[in-house]
Fold this sequence. Notes:
Chain B: It is a multi-pass membrane protein. The complex is a heterotrimer of chains A (about 325), B (about 250) and C (about 280). Chain B has helices at about 1-25, 40-50, 55-85, 90-100, 110-115, 120-145, 150-155, 160-200, 205-215, 220-245. Chain B is mainly alpha-helical. Chain B has a single domain, classed as Orthogonal Bundle (MetI-like fold), CATH 1.10.3720. Chain C has helices at about 10-15, 30-55, 65-80, 85-115, 115-130, 135-145, 150-175, 175-185, 190-225, 230-240, 245-275.
Amino acid sequence: MLNRRSLLQTGAALAVAGPARGAELERVRVSIIPINDVTPLFVAIERGFFRNEGLLVDTSPSAGGATGIPGLVAGSYDIAYGNVVSTLLAAQQGIELRVIAPGTKIQEARNDHSAIVVRRESGIRSGKDLEGKVVGVNTRNNVIWLYARAWIKATGGNPDRVTYKEIPHPQMEDAIRQKQVDAGYMVVPYVTLATAKPEFEKIAHPYSAVQLGVDVGQYLATASFVQSKPETVAKFVRALRRGIEWYNANLTNPDLLPIISGFTKIEVPLLKTLTLPPAPLVVEPAQMERTTQLMIEHRLLRKPVDVKALVAPMAL
Amino acid sequence: MRDRLLPRLLGILSIVALLGAWEVASRTGALNPVLMPRPSLVGLTLWEILVGGEFLGPLGHTLLLFAVGYGLACLIGITLGLLMGASPVIYGLFEPLVELIRPLPKSALVPALFLFLGIGPATMVTVVVLAAVFPVLINTLQGVRGIDPVLLDTARTFQCSRTRTLLSVVLPAAMPMILAGMRVGLGLGLVLVILAEMLAGESGLGYLILDLQRSFQIREMYAWIAVLAAVGGTLAVIFDWMDKRVVPWRGRA
Amino acid sequence: MGQSLAAPAVARATTARSAGSQNPAPRPRRNWAHTRASGFALILVLLALWEASSRLGWVQGQSWPPFSAVLVAAWRGTLGGELSLPLLSTIGRMLAGYAIGCSLGVALGLLLGANRWIRWIVLPVVEMIRPIPIPAIVPPLILFLGIDDALKVFVVALASFFPALINTMAGVLGVDDVLLQTARTFRVGWSRTVLRVVLPATLPAIASGLRVAIGLALVVTVVAEMIAGSAGIGYYIVQMQYALRPDAMYAAVLCLAVTGYVLNRLFLIGEARLMPWMGRG
């Protein structure tokens, strides 16, 4: 469905713009999460940046991204968008991955839209207040869980005294309203919708509060793919960077909305209410190392991961 | 005794041969050792899990959820099945609804259940009940309908009350069919227990397996899948044993 | 006729029923609608409650659209292809997996039923794998088969395989000895015995295995698509949930219910055509 759409769009761009023929294009399969983070990739597809490099990018969505890295390992994909914690977990278990391009980064506090949301009358303000309470996260033992814990600790709470409950992003608002959880770590667009209602309130932005500059998500490939097809990877990263640059220069451009709606299936009027954050051009290994430290502190990793070896030079 | 020994031996041999082939393939690198760790290593992990007693918590969670969900499903299925079989009015009232809900993949209902019942035990039990109730219900109904009219006539001749006829004539006569339905419900119920635990993400074998997969601890994941397989196998064996007690005439074809 | 609920679940059930003559006579058509009038009324009441609960705000939640909105979404999605294309792809995968799983299951079931050596060697392995619930094996399978069609077809084939295998085997083993002895007494040849005695006696068991399998197949396809999806109706449901379009999500659920119902009906009709001696019209 989505694959076909992106193919069609690439095809359309082809017909308009170039001498390059479909037969000459190299097909690259990319696993994505249908959220705003991968918009630059779709910008690069729509504007023909990949085609100019001789690539035909075929995207395959995975809700929540649970199948990205496994699919990469199994050879279903050449490249996958994944969050930093999953990447580090996989690396620790001996799965040979390489970070090839930047994805999402919290560069400034004002661009950190994900937040811990509570009912306004709950009186919860800090991690200390959350002790003995229940916090909703999309997935335990993963990135959102990690930064929720780190924030609880940073604001005087003991993260081990908090219960974490897995709630899918779209259900978080209902879960908080129905008091199934006392607080929920929400992401765009759900957080925007929820906090527009008077009953809810944001109390913190854990990413920027704990680690401003955190590299939340990246594009990955297996080490063997990077080794065997360095040209393909280089072309992909070059085209993606052009997509990122165009995206950053056009954050308020209404042309972006149909692109985002195309792969998230979220309707355009709803998308209009969102503020788009700029995307990073490089990966910062130092930030990934800080994430590694946090993961050790919260017992997600047993020992440090060699981040320098994990990040391919072209991502820097 | 002799003629039971040979089949057992052959069976054990074939399983050992399979594991041996896997072991060799993993050692030589024919199978990716990260994705398909050697059975000896998985066995070691399994041993640690069993000896350390850490399987008790998740196992208890899974079994409790299963017992409650499956028990309710059998109760509801048999009761409703008997009533629908005995009374055309009740049959007419519920048949369309049953036919509407039955073919639904129950997993598709999870988001709606989350909304009404919250993400927790209520949703999980409901999902299990929904999965296991229909085979029981339908087989009960069919068992009731297949009862020899002579039996019912006899009951009428002896002026048994309706309730008494239902409980002492209809129920025992329908028992083989009901048990066959419960056997199907057993498998379906267990599938949905695991799925519910994966979706609700709190505890239990289902959650654990998913969590281990998400953090790429493949060896541990296989060890837990082995625990799960043992649970499923044990439940089936217990059921078949009970089945033979209740319907001793079956299986002597 | 009006016997859709009366579907035996496993081979043993069929034999337990012993004779078709015990079934009540089929009712006339007019009666069919008449007896169910209250049932349809019940469904309408429930749907009206759904509509009201959403419109009047009894149930507060962003994922509870009125039923009428669901119907509109189903109508649009079916016509526009947004819903019908994933549904078709799901059915395609399901049928492929079902066909593969059932043919292998029946073939192996006949073999295991006929030869005790093979049964002794293979059955323990089958019994070892069979109790693992399908959702539990999806995560490791992703690592081997990726998340494409191969995974879903395999999972569906596996889910269909076991009921087909076990019921076929039970059917072969359950062929009445008296029948075989009679055939022997009348000096019926071996191949004729298999064709005329064993196969007809086993077909009902095979059929109930196949029916259990088709019920499982749709469920498992949707589960696999929900866990490891990038296409199909299972993924569509998850995607619509994330896109905050609950009307489209419930529309998909509605379409699945209809699909499941139609599949079951088709199966029953086919069975009645092919095996009239099963004693049901």
